[in-house]
Amino acid sequence: MLFTADFHAPHGLSNPHVQTLLPQLMPRASLRSETELINLPDGDFVELSWALPAPPDPHAPICIIFHGLASSVRSPRIRALLSSVTRMGWRAVLMHFRGCGKVPHRGPRTYHAGETADAYWVISQLARRYPNALKIAIGVSLGGNMLLKLAGEQGGDGLDLAGAIAICPPLDLAASADALNIGFARVYQRHMLARLRHRLTSLEPSQSSPVELANSRHRRLDTFWAWDNEITAPLNGFESATDYYQRASAGRWLDRIELPTLVLHAEDDPFMPRQMFTRLPTPSTCVRVEIAEHGGHVGFVERRGGLLRSWLARRVSEQLKAWSCVPSLTALDRSMPRA
């Protein structure tokens, strides 16, 4: 179901690009973390960043966060979420997608917006380690698309999660690739492609790889359509960028999600077309979509107590508290609580 978010941009700060860039300019949240490597079934690994201090109680609730494209624990947005969750007394952990942590990963595969197997494996490992802890997952941007696709694939009982929160997920990847090639959004596209090129050089060469990793032609791939067609698709078994976008976009799963889910979206998000949800299936009754008029892409900076603060961190904290208070309810009953 679609609802109006209660976010209100401060006077003079409603421009979508201002909102998108403001979190980069605000003071970074204080955060200590420790690193853990979790081996994957195919011989590669993912890197976890556990926020400190961790609660001593093994039953303390856990928040698992999945970052966006070319992001990491160093992102101000991710640090703000981890810090906010830790202050609530929760155990907070960020799963870095392959190659996004401090340690170069082993295989020639990359991560992508529809790669759900690694997240599923990590959640299953945490379920074994903390069987009695309430668990909530948060996905930011690309991580949000991945999380919603995972929730749709696994059904209501397929994941040891009590709920999921997706922040600005690009639910129609083809439409997002188009939007990022218009006007000022090209600046974001250029920045993210530069980071992807840098990370491509850290991949281990393989005779079986369909992509020549050390290739100067990669610098001429200046749009996501070109990059995903020449790099993402062949590295991950897709026929083309079109095939990748169709199969990896989570929008087509919205009406099949059985897990209590909150989606936060801004109508002016420069990474996506306006009125994006009009082209997608009607969300299931377990999915609450909150849409703000302003907010940019993972921006949502508000003025509170005379200071600029993250509305996202506040809204996420509200939802975590709401879900943690009703752990015994069914998925359908827990889909709508609001603190």
From TrEMBL:
Enzyme active site: 141, 269, 297
Domain AB hydrolase-1: 64-302
GO terms, molecular function: monoacylglycerol lipase activity; short-chain carboxylesterase activity
Spans through the membrane: none
Residues in the signal sequence: none
Keywords in alphabetical order: Hydrolase, Serine esterase
Pfam families xrefs: Abhydrolase_1
Source taxon at top rank: Bacteria
InterPro entries assigned: AB_hydrolase_1, AB_hydrolase_4_CS, AB_hydrolase_4_sf, AB_hydrolase_fold, ABHD4
Family: Belongs to the AB hydrolase superfamily. AB hydrolase 4 family.
Name of this protein: AB hydrolase-1 domain-containing protein
Source organism per UniProt: Kushneria sinocarnis
